[in-house]
Amino acid sequence: MSPGVASVASTLRSVGSSVDVVLEDRKMKWVFKHADRIGAKKVVVVGGEEEERGCVSVKDMDSGEQREIKIEDLGK
To answer: Residue 33's domain is classified under what CATH number?
Structure first.
């Protein structure tokens, strides 16, 4: 697990969010289906390019809207 993933998970847990981390090398389609199966409200993607910019992608599972936010703004 990359330090970025661990930091994001820790930040979200510190504000009371339940976090499931997918460590296997899976396609994004699988990740979103898994999130739907477990009833996740949001999916936070920590990708290499986003992490370099200090951001993550957050997808709202109800609306399908996806946006990029700064890691420092997580949990606000």
So the answer is: 3.40.50.800
How many H-runs (helices) and E-runs (strands) does the chain carry? Answer: 3, 3
Range of the domain at 36: 3-73
From residue 51, alpha-carbon distances to 37, 39, 44 in Å are: 26, 26, 12
Q: What does pTM read for this prediction?
A: 0.85
For tokens 């969010």, what's the residue? 17
> Given the structure tokens 């957050």, which residue do they identify?
58
Residue-wise pLDDT for 48-58, tens only, equals: 888 888 899 99
